[in-house]
TrEMBL record:
Protein name: AMP-binding protein
Domain AMP-binding enzyme C-terminal: start-end pairs: 467-542
AMP-dependent synthetase/ligase domain mapped to chain residues: 26-416
NCBIfam families attached to this UniProt entry: PRK12583.1
Length: 560
């Protein structure tokens, strides 16, 4: 290709965009590969073919229809990775209901906010996971469950929520059971589900993912069939997936990494999804790759680092591996090289994107040079335009830094019920402004060099300082708080808070951590807390977080 001079590049392709619904596309794949293995969940003893998966998806979709869930209704899903989670994703898509991904680590404050923000009519929930007692938290928020009929919840705190559908074999007051919902449908419901298929449209919203942005409370990025089906499909194409492939999925389903780059990438290619457990565990992941002879493995950089550093790493046979995706945070070059040589993943790809982009924007390809495959995030995916702009909005010459922006099929529809925030992110010409700083070279390869926003990425999980600050401001003893990230060898970054107390108030770091516990997700709770009487400021009164970051790092290094 001729070298480009300005940092603008459009991903080309010889194939068409798939202009279909997820349900329609899934049915065709399942009918083409009925006997291929679709889903393996080792921790649940599940092994289903595509025919079996399709049968169960239809059963659940018709069961939800029988409950009165109709296209456009919001259905939340809350829990770690499970077969029920995958079924819910595909069944809600088949039914045209909008699946709302609730982070399995959310606590009361976050759950209430999320369910109300997008007005969920139903919530499908696991029983518990690690320290999260999902059913207990729901009963705390909606004590009305204790005496209501299943499906007739009338809760003061969760006014729009009618149905709570619990997984597991036990039953709970006021809730449906997942398995029973699958048995509910009549012939009329099944016929209605078939009839619905001609009414659903590829541009209908089908998924809401919460992303915190820089501005406090989480925003519901709203994605359509066309957004995520194409992004998943094209990711599978970049990985050269076929029905012979088995992808090991230790990444969470509630994030696009799991539900799009893993589930939809596999489902659109008739490949096998293999889940090693409910959540990431390095030993379980390595064991699963070995036992199932997986050909592909996904992960955020921290996951690959933990796998490579596992004390028994060399005892696992990983020779079946070929490809996979590393994404979600900057991918260190040395880690990429080790994954290629020590994990046999000669075709590992780096992907870059964000939830608002369904989520992948850029990807490296197996035939790119080793240098490009380890040092860049690749070029634009097919069908998307990318540009790097300066503060005035002009495209910068190649090699110069600026904000990376994207336009194309993958741009979200907007933030749910938040036209103001949507307009701050997607401009009038349709460009989504990422907040990430990047450079583009003369062949269109992009390097991510920083973030305009102050987001902290801790172990692949995004923590937005403003959200934590806003929560801490609720403490009566706290007058001012600043949250920022510092580099951390293991987690990539760690959350720090500088706290100023009200006159005469006393509080310890442990008190603050206790205040956060069970209210906000564990990874958002500041690890390092310092009490201060003032903050470093510029002459114009802007707080300088980078000064705090440097000072904090220096004092922590002194103490170790
Ligand atoms: P999320 O919306 O959770 O997918 O987070 C998106 C953010 O993660 C992006 O805006 C980037 O700041 C960061 N990110 C994702 N992938 C990469 C990557 N490959 N390299 C560097 N940063 C990344």
């Amino acid at each position: 290709m001729t070298a480009i001079e300005k940092s603008y590049y459009c991903g080309a392709s010889t194939t068409q965009i798939i202009y279909e619904t997820i349900g329609g596309f899934f049915d065709r794949v399942a009918e083409k590969h009925p006997d291929s293995q679709a889903l393996i969940l080792r921790h649940q003893g599940v092994e289903w073919t595509y025919a079996e998966l399709q049968r169960r998806v239809d059963q659940l979709a018709a069961g939800l229809l029988a409950l009165g869930i109709v296209p456009g209704d919001r259905v939340g899903i809350w829990g770690p990775n499970s077969a029920e989670w995958v079924l819910t994703q595909l069944a809600t898509a088949k039914l045209g209901a909008i699946m709302v991904c609730i982070n399995p680590a959310y606590r009361l404050y976050e759950l209430e906010y999320a369910l109300n923000k997008v007005e969920c009519k139903a919530l499908i929930t696991d029983e518990s996971f690690k320290t999260s007692d999902y059913l207990g938290m729901l009963n705390t928020l909606a004590p009305e469950l204790e005496y209501c009929e299943p499906g007739a919840l009338a809760s003061t705190k969760l006014p729009k929520l009618k149905h709570v559908i619990r997984m597991g074999s036990s039953s709970s007051a006021g809730m449906h059971n997942f398995d029973q919902v699958c048995e509910l449908a009549t012939d009329a419901d099944r016929a209605a589900l078939v009839g619905l298929q001609t009414q659903l449209k590829p541009d209908d919203a089908i998924n809401i993912q919460f992303t915190s942005g820089t501005t406090g409370n989480p925003k519901g990025a709203t994605l359509s069939h066309c957004n995520i089906l194409n992004n998943g499909y094209l990711t599978g194409e970049a990985m050269r997936l076929t029905p012979a492939d088995k992808l090991c999925i230790p990444v969470p389903l509630y994030h696009c990494f799991g539900m799009v780059l893993a589930v939809l990438a596999c489902v659109s290619h008739g490949a096998t999804m293999v889940f090693p457990g409910e959540a990431f565990d390095p030993q379980q992941t390595l064991q699963t790759v070995q036992d199932e002879r997986c050909t592909a493995l996904h992960g955020v950089p921290t996951m690959f680092i933990t796998e490579l550093d596992h004390p028994n790493f060399s005892s696992f046979d990983l020779s079946s591996l070929r490809t996979g995706i590393m994404a979600g945070a900057p991918c260190p070059i040395e880690v990429m090289k080790r994954v290629i040589s020590e994990m046999h993943m000669r075709d590992i790809l780096i992907a870059y994107g964000q939830t608002e982009l369904s989520p992948i924007n850029n990807i490296t390809l197996p035939d790119d040079s080793l240098e490009r495959r380890t040092e860049t995030v690749g070029r634009a995916m097919p069908w998307v335009e990318i540009k790097v702009i300066d503060d005035a909005g002009h495209v910068v010459p190649v090699g110069e830094k600026g904000e990376i922006c994207t336009r194309g099929y993958s741009v979200m529809q907007g933030y749910w019920n938040d036209p103001e925030k949507t307009a701050e992110t997607i401009d009038a010409a349709g460009w989504l402004h990422s907040g990430d700083i990047a450079t583009m070279d003369a062949c269109g390869y992009v390097r991510i060099v920083g973030r305009i926003k102050d987001m902290i990425i801790r172990g692949g999980e995004n923590v937005y300082p403003r959200e934590v600050e806003e929560f801490l401001y609720q403490h009566p003893a706290i007058s001012e708080v600043q949250v920022f990230g510092i580099p951390d060898k293991k987690m990539g970054e760690e959350v720090c808070a500088w706290v100023q107390l009200n006159e005469g108030a006393t509080l310890s770091a442990d008190d603050i951590k206790a205040f956060c516990k069970d209210q906000i997700t564990h990874f958002k709770i500041p690890r390092h807390i310092r009490f201060v009487s003032e903050y470093p400021m510029t002459v114009t009164g802007k707080i300088q977080k980078f000064v705090m970051r440097d000072e904090m790092l220096a004092s922590l290094n002194q103490n170790t």
